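Below is the data:
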Amino acid sequence: TLRPALARIYETVGGALHEMRELIGHLRPAQFEDRRLNDILQDAVTAFEVRADCATTVEWVGEFPVNGVSITQRITLYRILQETLTNAQRHGRATHVTVRAVEDPSGVTLEVTDDGVGFDPVAVQRRRPGMPLARFGLYGMRDRAQILGGSFDITSTPG
């Protein structure tokens, strides 16, 4: 009858919920709790410096109070910075990256510049048939910024 099938569905949904809770816990690790945004962003820069053959310069402008931005904003900005640094080195073959974050009454601005080979931002951001809408890279960074009510701008030229 219907009862055994419903029991299997409830068991499957319960298992999926358990997995989701574990994933959410991993997306919000303790490293983001009770820490200033610039300290969290510095973690991303430091990790990048350890693994990449690329010099970095950082500038933090503002107070960056712990409660100045939400944990979701801290995590999102950290992930965007990680992706930006990786792209600069992997695709741009940059030898130097500058990270600048400014916190003021209007919000936070994160700016990353590099000396890489450059690219055509319009061509790179065109949706391609068969490619998923939600993917990492430029789409993911733009989407993450927009979810927070922010913007994501790219200035680059080949060469």
Residues 28 and 75 are 7 Å apart (CA to CA).
